[in-house]
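notes to self, project folder thing:

trying the whole complex as one job this time. last attempt i did each chain seperately and stitching them together was a nightmare. two parts in total, labels are on each line so i dont mix them up again. if this works i'll redo the older ones the same way
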Amino acid sequence: MSTSATDPTGIPDVPIDASGEKLARAASIGHGAPVLAFDVGGTDIKSALFDGDGTALGLRRTPTPAGGAGAPQRLIDRLAELADELRAQHPDVVPQAVGLVVPGIVDEQAGVGVFSSNLGWRDAPIRDLAAERFGLPVAFDHDVRAASWAEHVLGGARSYRNSVVLIIGTGIAGAILIDGRPHTAGGYAGEIGHSPIGEWPCPCGARGCLEAIASAGAISRRYAEASGTDLGGAKEVIALAAAGDATADRIWNEALDALAFSIAQLTAVIAPEAVVIGGGLSRAGGALFDQLNLRLRDRLSFHRIPKLVPAELSGNAGILGSALHAREAASAAGSTA
Amino acid sequence: MSTSATDPTGIPDVPIDASGEKLARAASIGHGAPVLAFDVGGTDIKSALFDGDGTALGLRRTPTPAGGAGAPQRLIDRLAELADELRAQHPDVVPQAVGLVVPGIVDEQAGVGVFSSNLGWRDAPIRDLAAERFGLPVAFDHDVRAASWAEHVLGGARSYRNSVVLIIGTGIAGAILIDGRPHTAGGYAGEIGHSPIGEWPCPCGARGCLEAIASAGAISRRYAEASGTDLGGAKEVIALAAAGDATADRIWNEALDALAFSIAQLTAVIAPEAVVIGGGLSRAGGALFDQLNLRLRDRLSFHRIPKLVPAELSGNAGILGSALHAREAASAAGSTA
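result (full assembly):
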């Protein structure tokens, strides 16, 4: 699997080892119960065992099983295999709970994967299937909300009680923290990538969705469509725009205008103290953050313009959030480290 | 004072008695401490004494003192006069707290009127001024947030834990309830009327604000500008659109499109269960609600489309919210009915 298949920026956030060995970057979530944590994506699964010190053991990335009929059960089977391998490698670390985060529309309270086009399920009772298989409490959440929770506890949003985390990669996903708590609205909140701001088509069926013009994936695709040349990622489009290419410049500016538009909406409506931006596109740095700041200041007046803050946990935010939630599940079940 | 000066729909929500007598409609907030309540607007003040049964006594509407230098003190002086008259009329009802709600940008936690163009103040310490004058606990809030709180407790939003209240009149103000609590963000949240969705100018200094195209005031003004004829209110523009007038039809449809656009944004981002619509424009009934529903369904896909619900408390929502907050202040101060 090439990195560009999953990361349209062309900038991998963690090195991928095809043999499924440890990733270079580990992170600590602090002291607590040992837990298993999974971050399931459309193309790969991150898995790790977190010990009592909060260190990720055996952190790896392996392919997600095929979607379609039976996908939920195939996924659970695969997670159990990964768990068995982790336990065999670290027999002294006995997990007390499991964290499991998935993409799509997720009702974390019901424990149900409501819909995922990538994983090919509808109304899949993932949490119950996992709890039955593992015989442990399972914390279940949306991948980006879990990632944003990790950014809130450990990363770029940790200083703010009201923030929005935007993960801009293949798509755009968002998560909203209100008074220090995730605002989920049964899984429907935070769909900033599918907030309709224009008239262009979006595969979701709505018109003018933000992610269809401003995600790293859209920037790369739109440049390829306009120029006939596939540069392979948004990073290359941004570089070409900086070098004076008119088509790249137009597409990058349309993405920036759309992002600024959506952040201006957020500012007027929920007034977050900070918007934390992660995902591949956030690695564009000043080319992204400075331009968004300029556009927000131009666009708004008396509003409280949020701080635009880079996410800090990079591609590991999802599994760290998964582990944090697993710790909460372990605590709720009364277990100790 | 004519009603059309304060109600651009031309449909007064409560009859105005120029002599300042009781208004026809009273309402009960239930049992609790007797309280004084004020709802201060740009042109008039509503005032009442709520007794232990929650009945509004002496509910009246009187002109707001002039803005500009010294406006906060002039306002407090006037409120004290109104309170003295209410107490004299009802010597047996001894208020235990005061509710005071004002428009503009309001930091209700600090008790400060941050900015009001209508009242002409900046950083006015209204709560402390009022508490000193009345010698009673003062609950201080934004007028529309208080109105929406009343809609939440007593009115159209009472069945929902996550809702947005939009008051569409001269301007458009909003208030957001998250998990049953008002989300204020230090007074900056809920500025849906000043969410920028286009490129037209807005007096606030931003571009494309919703209220500059979709408020009752904007509909009336835009028709007058386009046709050279001032019909006096949005109600008349909507009636003319229904009768086939092309200019009225264009302006009304632009307002509906803009409102649907903003509600679609809310739906994707915070996913309220209901959007409760009040203010003069809400009295357009099906011409408003049916059209917004159609547009939302056309615009969105997998999103959870909120119920569009009429507000129920009409023009009294503000003072009812003020009284509800005063009751909370009385409880917090340990007083009893």
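what i see at first glance: Chain B has a mean pLDDT of 88.
need to look closer tmrw
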